[in-house]
Amino acid sequence: MIPAKKLVMIPGPVPVSLSVLQKLGSEVKAHTDPEFVAEFQSLLSELRSITNCDGIAFLVAGSGTMGMEMAIANIADEKDKVLVCSNGHFGDRYISICRNRGLDITTMEAEWGKSVTPEEVDRELSKGGYTVAVMTHVETSTGVELHLEKMAEMMKERHPDVLFVVDGVAAGGGVKADMAWGIDVYFTCTQKAFCCVPGMAIVWAGQRALKKREELKSIRESYVDYARWIPVMTDTKKYWGTPAVNNISALKESVRIMLEEGLEERYRRHRNHAALIVEAMAALGFRTLAEDDLRSPTLSIFLYPENMPVEDLSFRESCADEGALLAACLGEYAGKGFRMGHMGNIDKHMLISAIAAIERAAISCGLDVKPGAALAVMQLGLAGK
Ligand code: PMP
């Protein structure tokens, strides 16, 4: 039998458009090539506009974890008091990164499936002394979206002196983040809703964050030091570390696709698709780990029904055989469901194929589902009915 084409439906990396991949396979240019220099500079200005950043967009080779380190290294040292909020596994990762740096941190952890709230954060910050607060826009282990605009508004109004750092790795490019809401640093990486290949992080630092970097004087790190990269990001002819030239050209193409779709439309599409997928999966008896009003537009964690006839791994293997690659759950939810990415340039064909593959796997694994139940939801929704 001809094997089914495997759709990568994990929460990143995501399927990437051919025109983006072609940029990776094109001749390598010198990073000093005037054509590349201009392309890089223009990409940085597009990136700044995407989050409405009044400072600098740093585009640096490395994964999202490097973005986490870069963001915190340039905004806090041992003299700072940092509130680190965690909604799950990646929030916990940020706690450990901050701890490793020897920062004076206080942690606030939400139960998995829930989110820290503006009220709780306000209460903690009101105790005083805090200079920085760190949060995750979309938590990839739980599929929970932080209500960022509300949180940022509260921070701006009640704690204007506290710098606000947001991990947007699983959100950026798929969920709106406007730094004018009151966000000082926002970061993401290229393999998620920016719909490019893994390899680079984007860190947006607003004016207040850049001022704080100046006040810190020298920092321990070199590679992720804003001070080293500012000359490059403001004049792309300059050099600090060799830019990932092909990845940068590929990202330029993927940003072109994003802007052509229109950002507001893109954010709306992510929300609509997410809602449809959740409804379709409910027709198969799967529910989300995230509470209803906290479900992320970019990815979902689906928990297996009570009467699941097979183990987690065999179900996901079955989905893969049918053509949809899904990720395992993390932490205490390992084995209890799967994580599904639905971010980037997922079109109607991909959505239908992914849901059809999951439905076939459910049937072949012996789940009591009505064939076509999930697909019917998707078809009606995608047809606008
Ligand atoms: N933060 C969040 C919210 C993430 O989802 C991830 C990756 N899944 C990371 C940070 C780390 O990114 P990376 O794997 O690219 O280092």
Overview of this protein structure:
There is one protein chain. With 385 residues, the chain is α/β, with parallel strands linked by helices. It has two domains: 129 residues, Aspartate Aminotransferase, domain 1; 243 residues, 3-Layer(aba) Sandwich (Aspartate Aminotransferase, domain 2), CATH 3.40.640. Helix content is 41%, strand content 16%. It is built from 13 helices and 15 strands. The strands form four sheets. A seven-stranded mixed sheet has the order 2-10-9-8-5-3-4, with helices on both faces. The protein has a four-stranded antiparallel sheet with strand order 11-12-15-14, with helices on one face. The protein has a two-stranded parallel ribbon with strand order 1-13. The radius of gyration is 21 Å and the shape is globular. It starts with 6 loop residues before the first strand and ends with a helix. Bound molecules: 4'-deoxy-4'-aminopyridoxal-5'-phosphate. The site of 4'-deoxy-4'-aminopyridoxal-5'-phosphate has 12 residues, from helix 3.
